[in-house]
Amino acid sequence: MSIQVALAGNPNCGKTTLFNGLTGATQYVGNWPGVTVEKKEGKYKEDKDIKITDLPGIYSLSPYTLEEVVSREFLLNGNVDVILNIIDGSNLERNLFLTTQLLELGIPTVVAINMLDVIEKRKDTIDYKKLSKELECPVLLISALKNTGIKELMVAVKKAANTQCKPKNIYAGKVLNALNTIETSLPTSIDTNRRFFYAVKLFERDDKIEAAIKTSADASVIEACEKSMDDDSESIITDARYTYITNVIKDCYKKGSKEVLTTSDKIDRIVTNRILALPIFALVMWFVYYISVTTVGTIVTDWTNDVLFGEIIPPAVDSFLTSIQCADWLHGLIVDGIIGGVGAVLGFVPQMLVLFFFLAILEDCGYMARVAFIMDRIFRKFGLSGKSFIPMLIGTGCGVPAVMASRTIESDRDRKMTIMTTTFIPCGAKMPIIGLIAGAIFHGASWVAPSAYFVGMAAVIVSGIMLKKTKLFAGDPAPFVMEMPAYHMPRAVNVLRSMWERGSSFIKKAGTIILLSTIVLWFLQGFGWEKGAFGMVDDIDHSILSSIGQTFAWIFSPLGWGDWKAAVASVTGLIAKENVVATFGQLYGFAEVAEEGNEFWGQLSASFTPLAAYSFMVFNLLCAPCFAAMGAIKREMNNTKWFWIAIGYQCGFAYVCSLIVYQLGSLFNGGSFGFGTIVGFILLIGLIYLLVRPSKESDTAEVEFAVK
Amino acid sequence: MTLNKVSIGQTVTVKKLSGQGATKRRIMDMGITKGVSVTVQKVAPLGDPIELTVRGYQLSIRKADAEMVEVE
């Protein structure tokens, strides 16, 4: 008989370490259906009949955060046989808060008190037998890190699976009376073991539960209780839980040494010190950036791009295909299309792994929470989180790892906002475009490149302020109430595993969507009608892509560059942004051009006015990123609708900005006042309105979930 | 007095929580309930948020949210 175990606990309680220890190599990492919350499953390595599902780290089972709703749904409807509740022994009081809620579910629960080593070091004592008696469930001491007590724990779990369990009542007096009244009024169709849990939730006026069981409690019962206790029902329940815990702990927990500064406190004294915090923060960020983006990262990326996918694989495949006399088109598809396209994407993987390695260390040791603490003030002004700083910083190197770095942001809304805006920051591959425009049109003026960064940052800020006021983001409130976990040494297993999980999920994406898109674009670019027949073309001028480009080039006339060459160049930029320059080169008749296209600067400056060129640059900086980054966005959004919202928003925003730049710029440069100018003004006013209009943040979370 | 006005190093007792909904629930879930004692540890370098010690652990919370907590 197989047993379904749900592993539940607070964040930072050692849950990941325990899960890794229990399941070994049998893990499956995915997402909960329809949401961006990670779901991990695995089998107990000593007994494959025990299936373990790792719930997100949560503090409570409230209906307000995605993680909590997902966990609750799984506990109620996931056929859970046993809840394994792991709690941090060095922080018993707050950890038991979740326990009191789990015990109400009527599911057999085993409590594992973790961090035995820390407790012993502090000379604290926990009377776990007494605690077990109080909580009416098995309580065991373990150390996930040192792997002690794990076997005994799983024996207890197996034993508990075959028991029946009554929901635990911790309430008394008026509250209990009210709960009992609600419970008896529940429809008889509800399972006996669940009735008490639902009664508590209905008392709290939990609208998600009300909707799920299509009942609500008699309002007068709740109001009477609220009136006599002078508080709202949710607070009454929360108060009752903590009062219960305080009483239990008094008997079971003895603090050893009194109020000594721990090592963690001492570190924090320095690291989040008012004067030293910012310099230390800058140093840490510089180090991570320096290693993963500019030195080791670039070296490995350049090697995979230029050597592995440049000098090693293509010639080898080339000569192999020639030797078997492969058809020309297939040859082209494999070498230029597949290897070229996917190679460009896979080239980022080593760099990403280096970056994820450092991010995992920052997360595991506890510094990530301090990053949010230090940077929150700035970023929350435009609807982002303090942790958005890291993706933005990485984004100056490459958008792909930047989008993936957004994983470390817990709040769903902050994360989505970060994903949508982070690729506005000019990445390394956009530098050639900037170089081209600066060199060809502005005679290498030194203000062009900094202005591109300024445009990128302004785009992030403006978008943040605008988006947080829209319906899409206004719904979910994002209270910043965050635990500052104690520092500890990062564990090699956790760091490497986290690095690999994130890296491999991207590789999988590169093999599917990105592969397909690059093949399609390769086909459009390489095939067409030449000399009256359809086939592979030598001149990109005759390709399908250029015919298509000529049909939609008019879309960009209001931006000042209706020339189809520019339109086609922008489209090929979707494969990789540096392609924009190469495509221009081909379209102007050069087979090979330097990185910034010095060869055709003369022709380019003849066909672009400075304003049109700047508008072209702005569009290409802000519009949808390359396929690799889009793949990352799709992966992180884990939702097709949100993916298209992000891409659509980026393209639309880029279009509007370029149009304003070109049309209003023309006016100030002595151009005539025309229809385009009016549109430009209207869009600018619209943008300003969206920026300054009052926000209407509501207090109800629109958390959607699709767990059955 | 509200929690955002408490100076660094001071320990206070929570009297009442105003406000409602998600933020209030979140603050209470994290252990800031009536009668609990809270120590303000420090302020972030840029002036907000603040760091507290409550129920034996460190919690960081924005000043705007701390205003919901009445203390003495």
UniProtKB/TrEMBL annotation, chain A:
Its main location: membrane. Mg(2+) binds at N20, G21, T23, G24. Pfam families: FeoB_C, FeoB_Cyto, FeoB_N, Gate. GTP binds at residues 9-16, 34-38, 54-57, 114-117. It is found in: Cell inner membrane; Cell membrane. Probable transporter of a GTP-driven Fe(2+) uptake system. Belongs to the TRAFAC class TrmE-Era-EngA-EngB-Septin-like GTPase superfamily. FeoB GTPase (TC 9.A.8) family. This is Ferrous iron transport protein B.
From TrEMBL, chain B:
Gene3D superfamilies: 2.30.30.90. PANTHER family: FE(2+) TRANSPORT PROTEIN A. It comes from Holdemanella biformis DSM 3989. One of its GO terms (molecular function) is transition metal ion binding. Transmembrane segments: none annotated. Residues 1-72 form the Ferrous iron transporter FeoA-like domain. Pfam families: FeoA. This is FeoA domain protein. Keywords: Iron.
